[in-house]
Design a protein that fits this description.
alpha/beta, Beta-carbonic Anhydrase, Chain A, 2 domains, about 10% strand, binds zinc ion, lyase, zinc, Carbonic_anhydrase_sf
Length: about 290
């Protein structure tokens, strides 16, 4: 049993992200880039109120906007009376497909023969967190499961099937659990409103809140929401690493498991230190490792 192989290693995902930043002229290690927490506090007042992490009515768009930016122009265009986002998206798909085929002539023919993604992404369904886009990657690069608040229920058939297929059959090299700032699901779990079907879904998040109540109550509301995002990612990582297929892949071929937080207000990913102690690794293997 190679316990050392269970340790999280330097992240190739982070290197992929760094490459994307480099293409954009950014350096992720650059201290001038806004941190997650500093961005929360630097939001203008009118946006802070709309983007309160304690609002259960998740805002459609919480990033700062520059009226002169192309994105803003596009948003304005979509709101004209005769424009509909779905119809324009279908038109844009044809343009995108043609342009992508010109720039990468081998891409679609290759994808038609199968997929070999290196990354499994377990993230939130939030529209502001499109994993392939924010990683600067292309179709075929990322296998994905997303749900509300990126909650990894131990018995969830959907996420369990995705993880097993990705790890055992696609043989991905990296599994990522990614939370994000201004998460509506986390905000809901920090409140006490009755939410119907969302209540059982958010139960694991409320349990994390309960176990860490003293810590969360010692923080400001914004800091507490961000801390719960982080704790939820760590909880999700534990669930992922308790799966037999994942444990075997870590031992047998060095599968790496990572925790990230995406800052909606800056577009920047932050990697969490998720190094497990040897004692934790041994206990996990004793309790969860499976054999054929
Ligand atoms: Zn979310």
């Amino acid at each position: 049993m190679n316990v050392a192989r269970l340790a999280v290693r330097p992240s190739a995902v982070a290197r992929t992200v760094e490459a994307a930043y480099s293409r954009a002229g950014l350096q992720p290690s650059d201290s001038s880039l806004p941190s997650v927490s500093s961005h929360v506090h630097r939001l203008p007042a009118h946006l802070s109120s709309r983007c309160s992490p304690f609002s259960t009515s998740a805002p459609a768009f919480c990033a700062k906007t520059d009226p002169s930016s192309p994105a803003s122009a596009n948003a304005d265009q979509s709101n004209t009376p005769n424009s509909d986002r779905y119809s324009s998206a279908l038109r844009q798909n044809k343009e995108w497909a043609a342009q992508t085929a010109r720039e990468h002539p081998d891409l679609f023919p290759t994808l038609a023969t199968g997929q070999q993604p290196q990354i499994l992404w377990l993230g939130c369904s939030d529209s502001r967190c499109p994993e392939t886009t924010l990683l600067g990657l292309k179709p075929g690069d990322v296998f994905v499961h997303r749900n509300i608040a990126n909650i990894m229920h131990p018995g969830d058939l959907s996420s369990g099937a995705v993880i097993e297929y990705a790890v055992q059959h696609l043989r991905v090299n990296h599994v990522v659990v990614c939370g994000h700032t201004f998460c509506g699901g986390v905000a809901a779990a920090m409140g006490n409103k009755q939410l119907g079907i969302l209540d059982p879904w958010l139960l694991p998040l409320r349990l994390v809140r309960e176990r860490n109540l003293a810590l969360l109550q010692s923080l400001s509301e914004e800091e507490a929401a961000l801390k719960l995002v982080e704790l939820n990612v760590r909880e999700g990582l534990d669930v992922v690493k308790q799966k037999g297929a994942v444990l075997n892949a870590i031992q047998e071929r060095g599968l790496q498991v990572h925790g990230l937080i995406y800052d909606v207000a800056s577009g920047v990913l932050r990697e969490l230190d998720t190094q497990d102690s040897e004692e934790t690794i041994k206990s996990r293997l004793t309790a969860f490792a499976v054999r054929d």
